[in-house]
Amino acid sequence: MSDHEGECEPGFENGPWLWTAYRAYNELLRDKLKKKFEAQEGPWMDHVAEVLAQIVNARWEGGRQQEKASEELFERLEKLLSE
């Protein structure tokens, strides 16, 4: 027996199958939550990801010509985040 008798130690007092079932339950719950978020927020997140990718590309290309485009992209991002 361990010195931490009152603590939950996976695989000892409760057995390995109980711990495995608990982890599977949490994974299932996580997957269901991800699906709900994708259904509700997916299109909006797609727009945000698109603008962020454009910002990264504009910064990568650099130069003064991209400065104005970068400002416009940041304005679009700010508008999306305020929705």
Structural features, described:
The chain has helices spanning 16-61, 64-82. With 83 residues, the chain is mainly α. It has one domain (16-82). α1 (16-61) packs across α2. It is elongated, with a radius of gyration of 23 Å. The relative contact order is 0.07.
* Shape category: elongated
Sheet of most strands: none
Beta content: under 5%
Q: What percent of residues adopt helix (DSSP H or I)?
A: over 70%
Overall structural domain count: 1
Structural class: mainly alpha
Looking at how many chains there are and whether they match, the oligomeric state comes to single chain
What is the ordering of alpha helices and beta strands? Answer: HH
Helix count equals: 2
Radius of gyration: 23 Å
| Unreliable spans | 1-6
- Span of the ends, CA to CA: 56 Å
The average pLDDT score comes to 79
How many DSSP-defined strands? 0
What is shown here, in short?
The chain is mostly helical and 83 residues long.
Topology summary:
Layout: H1 16-61, H2 64-82
Entry keywords:
disordered N terminus, 83 residues, 0% strand, mainly alpha, single chain
